[in-house]
């Protein structure tokens, strides 16, 4: 999936990326879509026919390139089992993705960091811009004790970084108001009042 000369690297949906990784995985085994479908049928997954696999890999695109055929969680798990892989192996950036290629998680969240995406899929690291405390709290419930200690350390660091960012933003906002007040000729008392914590300031 090349973007062409001079064009920005593509942004893939999760299904786009999984389809490319499925194609890569079966190619490594030397399997055609027909052989992959036969392996699926032998495993009892008769719905993954050669035609269905072709539709999964191509996405059955509309004229504007929109993918009409998404990949279900059940299909992801079945294909991973048939290909003798972990489901996680079928997630993340394709091996042959162009540098800068992103995977779109939501309309507002897209990432080109393959290591970050794999860590998130494995439950090891939250995505930037999401609630790290919620992520680690949930992850800790499924982690062995030794991994849990690292998760606690990561959570502590994440909370401290978030707190530092909040304090920095608050200080920058206050200094901007002070500079504006000085330019407007505010009195010392009025300037001092700007340093008093307000309802929105971190405690």
From TrEMBL:
Gene3D superfamilies noted in UniProt: lambda repressor-like DNA-binding domains (1.10.260.40)
Organism ancestry: Bacteria, Bacillati, Actinomycetota, Actinomycetes, Kitasatosporales
Domain HTH cro/C1-type positions: 22-90
Name listed for the protein in its UniProt record: HTH cro/C1-type domain-containing protein
InterPro entries the UniProt entry points to: Cro/C1-type_HTH, Lambda_DNA-bd_dom_sf
């Amino acid at each position: 999936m090349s973007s062409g000369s001079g064009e920005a690297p593509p942004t893939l949906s999760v299904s786009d990326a999984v389809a490319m990784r499925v194609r890569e995985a079966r190619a490594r085994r030397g399997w055609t879509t027909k052989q992959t479908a036969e392996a699926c049928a032998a495993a009892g997954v008769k719905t993954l026919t050669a035609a269905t696999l072709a539709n999964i890999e191509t996405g059955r695109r509309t004229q504007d390139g929109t993918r009409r055929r998404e990949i279900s969680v059940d299909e992801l798990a079945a294909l991973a089992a048939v290909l003798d892989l972990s489901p996680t192996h079928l997630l993340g950036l394709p091996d042959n993705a162009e540098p800068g290629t992103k995977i779109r998680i939501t309309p507002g969240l897209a990432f080109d960091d393959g290591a970050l995406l794999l860590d998130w899929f494995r439950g090891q690291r939250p995505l930037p811009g999401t609630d790290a405390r919620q992520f680690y709290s949930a992850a800790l419930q499924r982690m062995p004790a030794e991994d849990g200690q690292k998760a606690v350390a990561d959570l502590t660091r994440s909370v401290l970084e978030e707190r530092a960012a909040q304090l920095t933003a608050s200080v920058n906002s206050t200094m901007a108001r002070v500079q504006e007040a000085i330019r407007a000729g505010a009195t010392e008392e009025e300037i001092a009042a700007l340093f008093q914590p307000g309802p929105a300031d971190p405690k």
